[in-house]
Every structure is written in C-alpha cells, then in structure tokens.
Amino acid sequence: MNKDNTLIIILILIFIILAGISATKLFPGTVLQIVDRNDVQSPVTVNGTTSAPTTLDVSLMPISISSSTPTVNVNGSTFRLTTFNNTVIGPDQKYTLGFEGSKLNAKFCNNMGGEYTLQNGILRSNMISTMMACAEPANLMLIESTFGSMVSSGAKFSLQGHTLTLIDTLNNTMVFTVFMD
Q1: Beta bridge partners of 163
Q2: In whole angstroms, what is the distance from residue 81 CA to residue 165 CA?
Q3: Is 151 helix (H, G, I), strand (E, B) or coil?
Q4: Could you count the other beta carbons within 10 Å of the beta carbon of residue 58?
Q5: Global pTM exceeds 0.85
Q6: Positive or negative CA dihedral for 128, 70, 159, 171?
Q7: Residue (of 32, 30, 28, 35) closest to 62 by Cα position
Q8: What pLDDT digit, counting tens, does each position of 40-97 carry?
Q9: How many helices and strands in the chain, by DSSP H and E?
Q10: Are 84 and 139 within 8 A, CB to CB?
C-alpha cells in the first residue's frame, strides 16, 4: 500500500470516527464499533503490489444503559446537617440524621424516629417525635418541621461521596455530611 492510499484510508477513518461520535450523541445508547477484518481469501493487487485485503466494518451498536437508581447503602451511617436552604449550619450545631437497619432517626430540637423507605431516589418516613420547643437558634423549629414534612411526603435523596442531599417538592434543600465526632 502506498502513502497516498494510506492517507486516504486515514482520512476516511477520521471521518468515520467523527461521524460515529456525532451519531452516538444523536443516538444515546449506542457505541461506535470499528472491526478490522483480514479474513478475506483473495489477495488484492494495487500498483503492482499484492497484499491481503483489509476490510473495516463500522457500525453503531446499541448498548444497554440501566436507568434504575442504584441501591444506596446508608445502614449504620450518621450525617450532620451542614446547610438548610443555602444557609450554613455551624459545626457546633449537631443536628443529625441516622440510618440503622430499616429505622431512620433525626435529632434537631426533638428526637424523631421511624421506619423509612428509599425507592427510586425518594426517601419516605412517617416519624414520631418528642414535643419540645426550642427558642434557639431562631430557625431550628422551622428546620425540624421542614424535615418532618419533607420525609413524610417524600424527599428526593442524593448521596454523592460523603454528602447526602434531601430536596422536597417546594425545593427546600437540606445538605448533610457524614458525621464524625
């Protein structure tokens, strides 16, 4: 194979790869597959040179992508509230959320607890609570009641590394990090 033919093949390959990359963006769930086959029996003569032919099979192959939410194991983990609706909660405030088996417990002003479910990225729990009132910090009772409503109606649950985020239908957001004494 001479240099001109090699250059043409390289340019064709670049075009095919770029077209394949564009196609995979246009058709999610596909991957570009290029297979070099040297299994054709008859030799080819080009410009007096005889060589085994090369065939490139190029195709877009469907791939399987699971859209189900992966199972998250939070059993035995305790998290500390670090932000509530973009307001930073100081490290001296130890408002916690813990998972133990099928039980969820939380500590704000009151102790709260109950069984929970975590399905399709939604955390739900009908918790029971002690009934104290706390005057300080000023927004503590709001945080606690928002949390109770959030998990009662179902909160979007996201766990990224050591950060757990809960978001309710009103877009109230609670961010927790793994609790370490």
Answers
A1: 160, 177
A2: 10
A3: helix
A4: 14
A5: no
A6: negative
A7: 30
A8: 445 555 566 665 555 545 444 444 333 344 456 789 999 999 999 999 999 888 899 9
A9: 2, 14
A10: yes
